[in-house]
Design brief:
Layout (H helix, E strand, L loop, with lengths): L22 E3 L5 E5 L9 E2 L6 E2 L4 E4 L8 E2 L4 E10 L5 E9 L22 H10 L12 H4 L10 E5 L9 H23 L5 E6 L3 H11 L5 E6 L8 H9 L14 E5 H13 L5 E7 L7 E6 L4 H7 L7 E6 L6 E2 L13 E6 H4 L12 H5 L6 H9 L3 H6 L10 H5 L6 H21 L1
Parallel strand pairs: 1-14, 9-10, 9-12, 10-11, 13-17
Antiparallel strand pairs: 2-8, 3-5, 4-7, 5-6, 7-8, 13-14, 15-16, 15-17
Helix pairs in contact: 1-3, 3-4, 3-6, 10-13
């Protein structure tokens, strides 16, 4: 029997329209806008100024705290300015603007396609190199990877879990990456195991990707302690806590770190980025991005440089369809609507979803009928209808006691609500307010 997590979950239509589309190398943009805050934690601090010349892979910003990440140029050219731009969240954020001239890479980057399996570095050296390369979690949360690889002394890692689930509808970037780069991913997994000093790794893949399960199982067969785990299709199985439950049958306690279960979870795209950083000296400045939608002429998977305008990738798929109702950064469940399509791609840009007008239209909001469907599907065992009502009435102190900070913002509640209540909207609002209250308390 296939494994899955034990609490809640839904099964939206998969709509994997771009499945098995080969990864296309996107054109280098004419201008690149590289955000300084592409990760959870403090935005990076610029170390370049207007007029500076940079190459592909040049470090242009350094971490500004323990939970922060370095930023590297994805293009070669001249720094035009350091200014702000609206990002995928809809807020103006600081960024480095670069006028592109040619495509000159740093000489230290190994651009060959030769597989390099052996890693002679120590765990500490691996973690330092990962930090220097600016690697973050590529599953969406963008948590700085070097922090995850350095758990607090009171916790001990027992295994690495690779998140190759890709449970969001429409998105296929991770799936295609596995089909084309399984060997590199496996080296990355072995390096992650060495970094956290464990001899066991699990690669979780949902069984709607049988070809990926087959190719990754074959690639893993020559690595001791690495096991591919086929999982039942269930959203949001890609959530860290849900994946740990599915693979290990251990649940992360409320308010605790995932490492409390002994697991260090990394996205499959992150494992590939770790391979490139450690074995090829290549910082994280490009990633695979799915561009898709029911009206898109050619749904595709692109290897795109960070800082590329999303409009450029949309144009490469045939342009914005006439019946476009909404453009989503990410997938339909957890993604957010973009204010415009000139938003630059970032390390966490897993997909661009173009919804037609019919899909994009929300149903008329009706009164809650107390059906408890939102409670049944919540993977964190919360009461979304109640938390939503508390947020609507600004009762944020009670939201904290009712565990709003455990919400993973998966959208299962809104998806299943027969009254079309904007549950996720209110939960995000309340979680933001409560998070601010907690930070203010801690600062005193």
């Amino acid at each position: 029997m296939l494994k899955t997590f034990r609490i809640g979950g839904v099964h939206p239509h998969e709509n994997k329209l771009s499945a098995h589309q080969p990864i296309i190398t996107a054109e280098v943009p004419g201008k690149a806008v590289i955000l300084l805050g592409q990760h959870i934690g403090a935005p990076a601090k610029p170390i370049v100024a207007k007029g500076d010349i940079v190459k592909v892979g040049t470090k242009i910003a350094e971490p500004a705290g323990f939970v922060s990440a370095a930023i590297h140029s994805s293009v070669s050219g001249k720094v035009a300015k350091i200014d702000s731009i609206v990002d995928a969240s809809g807020y103006a954020k600081p960024a480095i603007f670069i006028d592109v001239e040619g495509d000159e890479w740093e000489e230290t980057i190994d651009r060959s396609t030769t597989l390099k399996r052996e890693c002679e570095l120590s765990a500490e050296e691996i973690i330092k190199k990962v930090a220097d390369a600016g690697i973050v979690g590529l599953g969406g949360a963008c948590f700085p990877t070097q922090v995850k690889l350095s758990p607090p002394p009171s916790f001990k890692a027992e295994c690495v879990i690779i998140n190759a689930v890709e449970c969001e509808p429409y998105l296929t970037a991770d799936h295609q990456l596995m089909l084309e780069h399984a060997d590199e991913i496996m080296v990355g997994v072995s390096i992650l195991m060495k970094a956290v000093k464990v001899n066991k790794a699990f690669i979780g893949i949902e069984n709607n990707k049988p070809d990926a399960i087959e190719i990754m199982t074959k690639a893993a067969s020559t690595y001791a302690g690495v096991e591919v785990v086929a999982l039942k299709v269930q959203y949001p199985q890609g959530g860290e806590k849900q994946l740990i439950d599915a693979v290990l049958r251990r649940q992360v306690p409320s308010g605790a770190l995932p490492i409390a279960t002994g697991a260090v979870v990394q996205n499959v795209g992150t494992a590939f980025a770790v391979y490139e950083a450690i074995q090829k000296n290549k910082p994280l400045f490009e990633r695979v991005i799915t561009v898709t939608g029911k009206s898109v002429v050619k749904p595709s998977n692109f290897m795109a440089r960070v800082g590329t305008p999303m409009s450029q990738l949309i144009d490469a798929c045939g342009g914005l369809p006439q019946d476009t109702g909404k453009v989503i950064g990410g997938g339909p469940m957890m993604g957010k609507a973009l204010v415009n399509i000139e938003v630059p791609t970032a390390k966490g840009s897993s997909g661009i979803l173009i919804m037609n007008q019919k899909e994009a239209k929300r149903g008329e909001v009706q009164n809650c009928i107390r059906c408890a469907k939102c409670v049944t599907v919540c993977p964190m065992g919360l009461e979304p209808y109640l938390l939503s009502a508390l947020a609507e009435n600004t009762e944020f102190e009670r939201m904290e006691s009712d565990r709003i900070m455990d919400c993973i913002e998966c959208g299962s509640c809104s998806f299943t609500c027969p009254a079309n209540r904007p549950l996720l909207d209110y939960l995000r609002l309340g979680k933001g307010k409560v998070g601010g209250m907690i930070r203010a308390r801690q600062a005193k």
